[in-house]
Amino acid sequence: MRRALLPLLALVMAKPLSAQEGQTFPLAEVLALSRSAFAAEAAFTDALSGILPLTIERSGPLPTDLPDPFLWAISGSVGEPSPAGGPGAIFSCARYGLSTRDTFAERGMLDPEMFALMGVLQPGFDDATRWPKGAVARLSCDFVWDDARIIAILPRSVADGVLALRYTRLTDQTGPADIFGEAGFSLLAEAGEHDSVVLQDSAQVVLTLGHQQVRFRSYLMGGGM
């Protein structure tokens, strides 16, 4: 899976999750948005805003010299600011096409412009190797929160049930207890729904002692804007 929200994640790992419960995270609805790999930025933003209260930042400006009609990126916060200060929940969503994928491969992270763009688009180390034959773009979203007064904790039973409905392969990647705790977990779901429009590649739900994270990746097949 890709490195998700690395600069922002450091902001949400400084303290344990609060025990108080905030808004329920609509996991099924969020994962359903992986079907929207064809959507332009405005349409996707509207759809996401319809299921979560967002403060949007458009992560721009993106490079204008990349011939990529699928390129867009948004990020920001979810819900009200944390009573502890700063955002209690953050998110990042992005889409890019074949030309940007190939530019990453050609120029690499040592190129300052590419390094900055990778930070915005959050490409996974395995994006290119998992890129399906016939796919023209990749869509991903990442949500991270550390304050359950903003977004309530998603327990494993809920995550497991929702992931199993959309993906056919589920792997438990839970690590050491001093990181995840007794109730923590890391579930990776792969091999989702696949048709001539979208391949739902993967999703992951993680709960540690300090934060919770939800992310997904899908690929646009054939074309669409």
Task: Give an overview in words.
26% of the residues lie in helices and 29% in strands. It has 225 residues and is an alpha+beta fold. It has an 8-stranded antiparallel beta sheet with strand order 1-2-3-4-8-7-6-5. The radius of gyration is 17 Å and the shape is globular.
Question: What key attributes describe this structure?
Answer:
8 helices; alpha+beta; 225 residues; 8 strands
Structure, briefly:
The protein is built from 8 helices and 8 strands.
Low-confidence stretches: 1-16
Question: Widest sheet: strand order?
Answer: 1-2-3-4-8-7-6-5
Inertia-based shape: globular
Characterize the biggest β-sheet. Answer: 8 strands, antiparallel
Radius of gyration over all CA atoms, rounded: 17 Å
Q: What is the number of helices?
A: 8
Number of separate strands: 8
Q: Helical percent range?
A: 25-40%
Instruction: Name the helix and strand elements from N-terminus to C-terminus, one letter apiece.
Output: HHHEEEHHHEHEHEEE
- Average pLDDT level: 87
| Strand coverage percent | 25-35%
End-to-end separation: 25 Å
Which structural class best describes the helix and strand composition?
A: alpha+beta
